[in-house]
Design goal:
This is NAD(P)H-dependent oxidoreductase. By secondary structure, this protein is α/β, with parallel strands linked by helices. It is 38% helix and 14% strand. Strands 1, 2, 3, 4, 5 and 6 form a 6-stranded parallel β-sheet that branches.
């Protein structure tokens, strides 16, 4: 039996219990059995990006990140906005992808879980950086699904049925694009 395609989930938040990570945990929970959905752990472990270090052998955390992206059929991102842009730790993660080719032409999308009227700066920066990496942005899968704080269960999974359904639709749209 062939291995199911892997969808890599990247959280832009390193905060424990964040709504962004809860959204991605929920994507993993609602994923059909035909997919292997993996939440990348460890963005806080990445060293500060330095172009002088972007060569083999890569720092181990960078090598793991790039290998996960390379293995993925598609990438789904959920990131907060800090000070009108991407959080520094997540921008650092993305900076480490610029020197590799793993994300180039990879179907990629994002979910914005911020309250209405918020998160536009993070989206704009994410679009710019992903453009530099050559990622194939799947526009119909780039959506805003506001998530109220405190709506996750003890496992960090969102319980709102409408939100769960919309997250399943995003995954379906993204994986449909990755099969194309």
């Amino acid at each position: 039996m062939p291995t199911p395609p892997m969808i890599l989930l990247l959280s832009g938040s390193v905060r424990s219990g964040s709504s962004n990570e809860a959204a991605l945990r929920t994507v993993r929970a609602v994923a059909p059995d035909r997919l292997r959905v993996v939440l990348h752990e460890g963005p806080a472990e990445l060293p500060h990006f330095n172009p002088d270090d972007d060569h083999d052998p890569l720092p181990p955390a960078v090598a793991r990140l790039r290998a996960a992206i390379d293995e993925a059929a598609a990438v789904l991102i959920c990131t907060p906005e800090y000070a009108g842009t991407l959080p520094g730790a997540f921008k650092n993660l993305l900076d480490w992808t610029v020197g590799g080719t793993e994300i180039c032409d990879k179907p990629t999308a994002w979910i914005n879980v911020a309250a209405p009227g918020r998160g536009h700066g993070a989206e704009a920066t994410l679009r710019t950086v992903l453009g530099y990496t050559g990622a194939r942005i799947v526009e119909p899968a780039c959506v805003r699904i506001p998530v109220a704080p405190g709506t996750a269960d003890a496992d960090g999974v969102l319980t709102d049925a409408d939100v769960r359904e919309r997250l399943a639709e995003v995954l379906d749209t993204l994986t449909g694009a990755s099969a194309a």
